[in-house]
Amino acid sequence: MDPPPHGANGNDAYTLLGNIGEPESLTLAPRGTPLWKTSWFNFAPRVGIAWSVHNRSGWETVVRAGGGVFFDTNNQVASQGFQEFGFSAVAQYFGAPLPANPAQLDFTPSAAAPYTSSPIDAFPAHLQMPYTFQYNLSLQQAIHKTQAITVSYVGATGRRLTAEQELSLAALNPNFGSAYYFLTNLTSSYSALQAQFQRSVTQGVQAVASYTWSHCLDFGSNYFTLPVTRGNCDFDVRHNLQAGLSWDLPSIGGSKLAQTLVNHWGVDGRLMSRTGFPVTLQGNFITDPATGSQYFGNLDIVSGQPVYLYGSQYPGGRAVNPAAFAYPNNNGPGNAPRNFVRGFGEGQINLALRREFPLYDRLRLQFRAEAFNVLNHPNFGYIDPYLGDATFGEALSMLNQSLSTVASQYQQGGPRSMQFALKLVF
């Protein structure tokens, strides 16, 4: 159960009354109006089964299957209402001297008509919780006592998914400037064939390798200002290979000096390799005069032109061909499939050399020398998706800069980097 949230001390978010398809009918709902009606029948059954087909030691076979319904909340949708109309205000001054004077800074959020100070959210009165039906089937086969291969098929089908859309209402309803509303009938689907090899620690070697072939479809992974068009998801990676190895090098006998130099060494390695993410090509920024909906338009495909150009003059040796695309006539929908153009993949190997020094009883000192992207393989990231740009279709940054989650030296997809570490274990 997920009732709509409300603010403390009566500071509730606002919503609209009326038909979103008839912008002239929209009015501001009184503060305190529930953002939507609570739904009470979100039943989520789940089932799983495991069958041990063979039990012979070292050659065990296990089949597993499962499925179920998983609901999500609408908290992300509701949070929009607590950030905009009635909660934020913006004042713009052009040509004003700095510093700003107190009168220029004296403005606060307002809920007085006309409601044009900031965007307002229109929540569907019967907004229901989105859900996903997930299912899986796997076969796990032991190979002797320390190794196993697992092959799995997994899938997920999303229903009642929400997508935020933007409306420009100034020309359709003088009481409002812009509004966000939420579609609630979108779907998605994901399917993947996965294979994994796993070796548990034996003779100092532990290894795991996994490969996934997958395909994802939805109506718009980006959350707003895009028309809802079913196509490849923004994170649709078709092929993904991951592998890891940890090896404690064998110890030797002999002189104490030889043991000190050779024993207690180990090597760790990781391989990452995948194909590229889709590139969402974008044309003109369009405002639909009938509904006020705003989004980036699609493009038309020009027949007879190659989609990609190759050459050393392009970062990564490849670029999307600008001549292969054109703006549709009269801001039409365009015929280019959504997310069919692909960016660059990733390939990277990380290696670590480690040594452990026994000091006293359980006290040990560990030394590690680590190299990330040891082969210094270039990984390209963000592709310029705007047809009007001079750099359309070209990579504008490396992968580590495009991900923007942590500092570039600690992010995958960057140039070769090294670090050294000491750790005391007791």
List keywords for this structure.
about 425 residues; mainly beta; two-stranded antiparallel sheet; 15-stranded mixed beta sheet
Total beta strand runs:
23
**Major sheet size, sense and barrel closure:** 15 strands, mixed
Residue share in helix: under 10%
The gyration radius over C-alpha positions equals 28 Å
Quaternary state reads single chain
The string of secondary-structure elements, in order, is EEEEHHEEEEEEEHEEEEEEEEEEEHE
Account of the 3D structure:
The longest helix is centred in the first third of the chain and has 7 residues, at 75-81. The chain has helices spanning 75-81, 102-105, 256-262, 399-403, and strands at residues 16-17, 27-28, 46-54, 61-71, 120-122, 131-143, 147-168, 178-202, 205-218, 231-232, 239-248, 265-274, 278-279, 285-287, 293-296, 300-301, 308-310, 318-320, 325-326, 341-342, 346-360, 363-372, 417-425. It has a 15-stranded mixed beta sheet that branches. It has a two-stranded antiparallel sheet with strand order 1-2. A two-stranded antiparallel ribbon has the order 13-20. It has 426 residues and is mainly beta. Helices cover 5% and strands 42% of the residues. It is built from four helices and 23 strands. The model has no long low-confidence stretch (mean pLDDT 90). A hairpin with a 7-residue loop joins β17 (308-310) and β18 (318-320).
